[in-house]
Request: fold
Amino acid sequence: MLIVQKFGGSSVADAARISRVAAIIGEAYRAGNQVVVVLSAQGDTTDDLIAKAREINPKPDKREMDMLLSVGEQISVSLMAMELQKHRIPAVSLCGWQIGLTTTGSHTAGRIETIDTGRILRELESEKVVLIAGFQGIDHAGDITTLGRGGSDTTAVAVAAVLHADRCQIFTDVEGVFTADPRKVPGARLLKSITYDEMLELASSGSQVLHNRSVELAKQYGVVLEVLSSFLQRPGTKVQEATRDVERMIISGVAKDDHIARVTVGRVPDRPGAALKLFQVLSDNSVNVDNICQSASGSGRSDIGFTVAEDDADTARTLLQKARPEVGYEALSVTRDVSKVSIVGAGLLASPGMAVRMFEALTEENINISMISSSEIKLSVVIPKSDADRAVAAIHGKFFGTGERLTLPGTRIRKGERENAGL
Amino acid sequence: MLIVQKFGGSSVADAARISRVAAIIGEAYRAGNQVVVVLSAQGDTTDDLIAKAREINPKPDKREMDMLLSVGEQISVSLMAMELQKHRIPAVSLCGWQIGLTTTGSHTAGRIETIDTGRILRELESEKVVLIAGFQGIDHAGDITTLGRGGSDTTAVAVAAVLHADRCQIFTDVEGVFTADPRKVPGARLLKSITYDEMLELASSGSQVLHNRSVELAKQYGVVLEVLSSFLQRPGTKVQEATRDVERMIISGVAKDDHIARVTVGRVPDRPGAALKLFQVLSDNSVNVDNICQSASGSGRSDIGFTVAEDDADTARTLLQKARPEVGYEALSVTRDVSKVSIVGAGLLASPGMAVRMFEALTEENINISMISSSEIKLSVVIPKSDADRAVAAIHGKFFGTGERLTLPGTRIRKGERENAGL
Reply:
C-alpha cells in the first residue's frame, strides 16, 4: 500500500516528539508499505523566523518571507530523516523544489499547480521513506513560494493525489473531527466519517481541524483523508464522499466562529446593481463576505446584512464608506461582538425539523438571534459573542445529548428521576 | 564596476550587525556599482543546527546534514534582502541551487564545478543587489551539498571568477592579513598585499584568515582578493600575484599552528616501498601529513618524522600500529605537546639569511627545535607548544622589530641609545 502521512508542527516540536512520530512512520514502513511523509515546521520555528524578519523590517517583502520561512520545513524533514536512519529505516528528505512542486499565485499564498513524481517514485522504489517539506514550492521564476495557512495539509493531499496513494493520513493534536469542540462541549463525539462538504462547512464555521483548501483538493481528486491523533493509537475520522452508512447522523457537528464581524448596510435603494456594487467593492479588495441576508422593507429600500472575518472589519468599513455615494445607502454599522454558530450535516436540507430543534435550544437559553443563513448542508445563526459557548452546548445537547449528565453521578440520578417522572 | 562582497557569520550575527553590513553594501551600490554579496550563516546558527542533529542522531547522515545546515545561509540572505529593501535598495536573495551552483565530491565537502550566471546577471541588469547563500550547492542528483570549511569564501571567489568581477572583497572580523597574530604579537603589521602562495602557506600554518581552497581558486582564476574589516572603514590586504613593489618585505608573516601532533616512526628499514607504505595507509584514510623529515642513520634503518592535524593523531597512531608488520618499523611515538611556527615569504628561498635569523631568534630564547621543514616560500620549525607564543614574538621581532619598543616611550629611548651605540 502507498500511504501518505502528514504531521503538523506540534507533532515534531522537539527531539522526543520526532522520535514518537518516527515510530508511527516506522510501523507503517515495516508493515511493508511505501510511505511518503509530509512535515510542517517544528513548533515555534515559523513564529521565531517571523519575529526575526519583523525585527529587521516591519513590512518584509513577501518573496523574501517565503525564502526565509521555507527553511522551517526543511529543518523538520532533515531531522526526521536522521531519526529514521538511527532506527535503520532508510529515508530521504526533499524540499518543494526537489519534487518539482510548482505554484501559481502570489508569494505567501501560492496554489499548487504541478508535482513531478519522478524523484519521489525513484526513492520509493529504492525502499526509502520519502520525507517532503510541506507548505512550500517554487514558482515559474524559480523562486521559493509558500502555500499559506494549512499549506502542509494541502501538500499532503496533492502528493497523495498525484501518487494515487491508497491512504492519506493527516496526523494532528486532536483525535479527529468531533460533533463540537471537545475542549468546550463535554459531550462532543468523535465522528467516524464525514463528507468533504460537511468538513468544508465545519472548517468555514471555525472548526479548523483541516484547512478548506486541503479538503477542496481532496474532494476534487477523490483523496480519502483520515484525520487522526499523533499521540493516541486510535482510528480517527475519515473525510470522503457520502457513504451509505445506516447509522449516520443527520447532523455531523456544531461549530462556532468567534472571529467574525456583522455588517449591516441600512436602507439600500431597491434598484438593480446597488447590491452588486456593494459586494463588488468588497470582493475587489479581497474581503470575503458570508451569510448574506437581505430584507426588503417594501419602501423601495432594504437592509443588507452579512458577516466578514474580524480581521477584515475595518477594511470593509472604509471601503463601504467610500462607496456610499455610488451605492446610496443611508446607514452603516459594523459590530464585532458577535459569533456565528452553525449546525452542519449532509441531510439538513431534507430534514426541516433540524432547524426547529436548533431554534428551540436557543430559545430555551434565551439567546437572541440577529441573523440566520443556510446552505444545503449548514444552518448558521449570528448571536452575541457572550452567548456563543452556551449556545453551542445547548444545541449540541439537543442533537447528541449532554455528556455532563452522563458522566457526573449526581446528575445521572436526576436524569433517571426525570425519566421516571415521564419528562 | 562589478563588486563581489563576502561577509562571514559574525558580521551578520544579529539585526544590528546586519544593519551595519547593509550600510557597507548600500554604499557600494549607491556609488553606481553592480553588487553581488555572498553571506555565511548567522553567528551560532550552524552550531545550533549541529546540536539539534546530534541530539537526534549522534552520527547523522551527511546528505541530511547538508540539507539541514544549508538553511543557515538561506536565513542570512533573506534577512539581508529585507534590511536592504527597508533602505529602498532593491535586493534579491538566492540559494545555491538557484544560481545552478553544482558541486562534485562528497556531501559536507563538495567542490564547486559550475555556476550558471544567467539568473545573477538578469537580477543585476534589473539593478538589484544579488545576495547569494554561501557554502552550498547541489550535486548531480539534485541534492543539496555544502562546501565544507571556508565554503562561503570559496563561493565568493567562484562567483567573482565566473562573473569576471572587478573586485572581490572578503570582509572579516580582522583588518586584513598581518605579519603575525595581532592579538598576541603587539608589533604585528598589517600587510598591504600578499601573494596567493604566501597566503596559502600562512593559512596552512594556522593563520586562518582565508581558507586555502578559496585562495587556490582565486589564484587559478586570477581573482584579486581584498581582505578587510566589516567593522572598520579601512583598506585591508590585497591577495594577488607577485607585484614589483620595491618596498616589499622578503618575509610576509610569522604564523603558528597549535593544532598539530608530531609523529615519529623509529627505525624504518631502508628498503624501497617502506616509506611509501607508511604514507599510503595514512593517505587512504584521509590523514594529511606535513613537514616530512627523514634522517638516514646509515645502519640500514632510518627515523621518519612528520606532523598531522591534532584531530587525526589517534587515527594515525591506530593506522600505523596496524601497518607495523608490513612496514617493519621498530618504534612509534605520537606527541601532541608541540606547535609549528613558520615564516612565510616569496623571497625566502633566495635569501638564506632569513633562516639564520629565525634560528638566531629561537636560540636567543633558548627554544629547542625538534623538526625543521621548508618549502620555496615557507620555513617551519616544530617546537614545544609551551614555547610557541614566545617563539612567534621573538621571530617577529627579529624581522619586523617589536611594536612594544616603538610604542612604549621608555623603550623608544633605549632603542635610540642602541642605535647610537652602533648596535
Notes: Residues 403-423 of chain A have pLDDT under 50 and may be disordered. Chain A touches chain B through 37 residues (CB under 8 Å). Chain A is about 40% helix and 25% strand.
